[in-house]
Amino acid sequence: MEAMVEGQLVAYDEAGEGTPLVLIHGYPLTRRLWEPQLRELAAHARVIALDLWGFGGSAAVGEATMGTYADQVRALMDELSIGRAVVGGLSMGGYITFEFFRRYSNRVAGLIFANTKAGPDSAEARAGRDQSAELAREKGVDAIAAAMLPKLLSPGAYAGNRGVVLTAEGIMRGSTVEGIVAALGAMRDRPDSTPTLQWIDRPTLVIGGKDDQLIPPAESEKIAGGVRGGRLEMLPDAGHLSNLEQADLFSRAVGDFLKKVG
Ligand code: MLT
């Protein structure tokens, strides 16, 4: 589906009825990341998965901050007449979810942080963002996808689960160079969300992957420990894209959470 948001095209998928659940993909991915959850959670909720600016079918809008994406999510919610939603994101989607809470807490019924962290980039990580942007500009999306692929999955899935490897690769191919470069800048300059944890006053679910090579389980533990009443689900045999590798467990954890949030 498509909507015009602030004069720009936003692509999104929607399934089901009930409590609105807005899912935000990570980098360098698209809304296709959430296909298993759209299928499996439609019985529990009105599930919406959007393409961030410059990814999948959404327009590219030049330089971005986490605020640019949080505003995009809010504007799409306005367009779809959604007042309050459970808002959740994976990895970069989680960084955006923190920003969404800071800007629009009145639009939040609950929060989901999957395979993400509260802290900012280290100096080394910041330099890495600039190198990746250079690689994207010179060699394109495929070079970024090739560099990311082994890190996105658990070693077991990367070596033995051809289906999930091809799916992850295919999703990354839906990114654009402009979208990638903008997201890298936004992640490089994102604020520290650690001080935000103590202010979160909404039901919060944190999901991690025991075999996440990009964002280790300890980061999920920090978020869950820092949020009052934060609930942690650490999925076995799951890497960074835990919702793809362990789709059923992930969707069940979110489905149980939604029942509590109501
Ligand atoms: C993501 O999966 O969204 C990114 O890899 C997160 C990051 O690079 O910090």
Written description of the protein model:
- With 262 residues, the chain is of the alpha/beta class.
- The protein is 48% helix and 18% strand.
- The protein has 12 helices and 8 strands.
- It has helices at residues 35-41, 66-79, 92-104, 123-139, 141-152, 155-160, 162-172, 177-188, 194-197, 217-226, 242-245, 247-261; strands spanning 2-5, 8-15, 20-24, 46-50, 85-90, 108-114, 204-209, 231-235.
- The chain has an 8-stranded mixed β-sheet with strand order 1-2-4-3-5-6-7-8, with helices on both faces.
- Helix 4 runs antiparallel to helix 8 (177-188).
- The mean pLDDT is 97.
- It binds D-malate.
- The site of D-malate has 7 residues, from loops.
Give the overall silhouette.
Answer: globular
Query: Main β-sheet: number of strands, strand sense, barrel status?
Result: 8 strands, mixed
Strand order of the largest sheet: 1-2-4-3-5-6-7-8
Structural class: alpha/beta
β-strand amount: 15-25%
Discrete helix count: 12
Tell me how many strands there are.
Answer: 8
Bound molecules: D-malate
* Distance between the first and last residues' Cα: 26 Å
**Portion of residues within helices:** 40-55%
Averaged pLDDT: 97
Task: Spell out the helices and strands N to C.
Answer: EEEHEHEHEHHHHHHEHEHH
What is the radius of gyration computed over CA atoms, rounded to a whole number of angstroms?
17 Å
* Residue windows where pLDDT falls under 50 for at least 5 positions: none
